[in-house]
From TrEMBL:
<dbReference type="GO" id="GO:0004816">
    <property type="term" value="F:asparagine-tRNA ligase activity"/>
</dbReference>
<dbReference type="InterPro" id="IPR004522">
    <property type="entry name" value="Asn-tRNA-ligase"/>
</dbReference>
<keyword id="KW-0547">Nucleotide-binding</keyword>
<dbReference type="GO" id="GO:0016740">
    <property type="term" value="F:transferase activity"/>
</dbReference>
<comment type="similarity">
    <text>Belongs to the class-II aminoacyl-tRNA synthetase family.</text>
</comment>
<keyword id="KW-0030">Aminoacyl-tRNA synthetase</keyword>
<dbReference type="GO" id="GO:0003676">
    <property type="term" value="F:nucleic acid binding"/>
</dbReference>
<feature type="domain" description="Aminoacyl-transfer RNA synthetases class-II family profile">
    <location>
        <begin position="130"/>
        <end position="430"/>
    </location>
</feature>
<keyword id="KW-0963">Cytoplasm</keyword>
<dbReference type="GO" id="GO:0005524">
    <property type="term" value="F:ATP binding"/>
</dbReference>
<protein>
    <recommendedName>
        <fullName>Asparagine--tRNA ligase</fullName>
        <ecNumber>6.1.1.22</ecNumber>
    </recommendedName>
</protein>
<dbReference type="GO" id="GO:0006421">
    <property type="term" value="P:asparaginyl-tRNA aminoacylation"/>
</dbReference>
<keyword id="KW-0436">Ligase</keyword>
<dbReference type="InterPro" id="IPR004365">
    <property type="entry name" value="NA-bd_OB_tRNA"/>
</dbReference>
<keyword id="KW-0067">ATP-binding</keyword>
<dbReference type="InterPro" id="IPR045864">
    <property type="entry name" value="aa-tRNA-synth_II/BPL/LPL"/>
</dbReference>
<dbReference type="InterPro" id="IPR004364">
    <property type="entry name" value="Aa-tRNA-synt_II"/>
</dbReference>
Length: 430
């Protein structure tokens, strides 16, 4: 019977065969302990010399790291192992013997590991991070599907910038200019006017020359847009979404969180409603904490966000940022025109902003005015202006950065470990 490591609990007391790789090994004259992995998980295989043919024991004893094998044996419960099961091996068939595998159990430098990212992914730690990432993706689709959202795929090649910045990757689109998308938001607004509640999930690109632990050049975004949803409605969806994915990871990735040494008590604290502070209140708080380097009208940096979030020990919303530091499409606050109806969700423990969102302008004249104020080409935005011209309604949306969210929930320090093949300022390999 062929099976996988993740399924062995169904076969206790039975003999099965698993295709696996040898992650590590230790042996003595009488017993060999094989640390096996098959992509679905990790499990120990025990080969006892007195219970198998001599050739089987010698094969097991001579196996090299990352050799591929078929192992056959009986599944037993093992309460000493976090996994809970092990295999009493009776047969080992070598598929390919790996020679001089470069990533050994010793310590390696980050650059070496990044150069060997295609192999580093096989490690227990990276396996755990990718499983948590996968669970967040699964729970994302679950949440939006259960709440009546329609999945829409915006284009990756665009002719304009939703943020109005120069941090774009330029390319030629036959005889005209095009850019790699930095956000699908404008297209998602068009979809929301057709389908009500929509979400996208895809790659985005930012040509920021940043080397911080929070930044990637290519990353994945979840971007919902909701017709007839005002600012407060959107905040409620964001709270519910974040708590849903956290609960899903706590429930379905307990082994992976344990492997990463994650303090799950900190995740268990995350519950709705999230605290909210206005930008004005945040500036005042920072001044009281001795941050004299920031004034009203400045955007927050990582130290500022961390100080604010740590004060609450919870994910929080910072709302009502100054109009001048936010994109052109954000709806002004009803009682003052110097701030907009927007919010950044800041994760605790120093992980920074994971969501940015706002109510969108739905007045045609105001939208046209803002586009002109930001010196954006009206021709390129004509289609977007049509949305506020033909049956416009109040609508809101937000964008969540997947890799930052994975880093926070898994407790990993740097986002380079939260995407399979990171693209960094000085890294396009492998």
């Amino acid at each position: 019977m062929k099976t996988t490591i993740s399924e062995v609990s169904k076969y206790v007391g039975q003999e099965v065969t698993i295709g696996a790789w040898l992650a590590n090994k230790r042996s003595s004259g009488k017993i060999a302990f094989l640390q096996l992995r098959d992509g679905t998980g990790f499990m120990q295989g025990v080969v006892v010399k007195s219970e198998v043919e001599e050739a089987v024991f010698q094969t097991a004893k001579s196996l090299t790291q990352e050799s591929s094998v078929y192992v056959t044996g009986t599944i037993q419960e093992d309460n000493r192992s976090p996994f809970g099961f092990e295999m009493q091996v009776t047969k080992v068939e070598v598929i390919q013997a790996a020679i001089d595998y470069p990533i050994t159990p010793k310590e390696h430098g980050t650059e070496f590991l990044m150069d060997n990212r295609h192999l580093w992914l096989r490690s227990r730690r990276q396996h755990a991070v990718m499983k948590i990432r996968n669970e967040i993706v699964r729970a994302t689709y679950e949440f939006f599907n259960e709440n009546g959202f329609v999945k829409i795929d915006p284009p990756i090649l665009t002719g304009s910038s939703p943020e109005g910045t120069t941090e774009l990757f330029h390319t030629k689109y036959f005889d005209e200019d095009a850019y790699l998308s930095q956000s699908g938001q404008l297209y998602m607004e068009a979809a929301a006017m057709a389908l009500g509640k929509v979400f996208s999930f895809g790659p985005t690109f930012r040509a920021e020359k940043s080397k911080t632990r929070r930044h990637l050049i290519e990353f994945w975004m979840i971007e919902p847009e909701m017709a007839f949803y005002e600012f407060e409605d959107s905040l409620k969806v964001q709270e519910e979404y974040i708590t849903h994915i956290i609960q899903s990871v706590l429930k379905n990735c307990a082994l992976e969180l344990e492997r990463l040494g994650r303090d799950t008590a900190k995740l268990e604290k995350i519950s709705v409603p999230f605290p909210r502070v206005t930008y004005d209140e945040a500036i005042k708080f920072l001044h009281e904490q001795g941050f004299d380097d920031i004034e009203w009208g400045d955007d927050f940096g990582a130290p500022h966000e961390t100080a604010i979030a740590n004060h609450y020990d919870q994910a929080i919303f910072i709302t009502h940022y100054p109009t001048k530091i936010k994109p052109f499409y954000m709806q002004p606050a009803p009682d003052r025109d110097d701030v907009v109806l927007c919010a950044d969700m800041i994760a605790p423990e120093g992980y920074g902003e994971i969501i940015g969102g706002s109510e969108r302008i739905h007045d045609y004249e105001l939208m046209k005015q803002r586009i002109e104020q930001h010196q954006l080409p009206l021709d390129a935005y004509k289609w977007y202006l049509d949305l506020s011209k033909y049956g416009s309604v109040p609508h809101s949306g937000f964008g969540l950065g997947l890799e930052r969210t994975v880093a926070w929930i898994s407790g990993v320090e740097h986002v380079r470990e939260t995407i399979p093949f990171p693209r960094l300022l000085n890294r396009l390999y492998p």
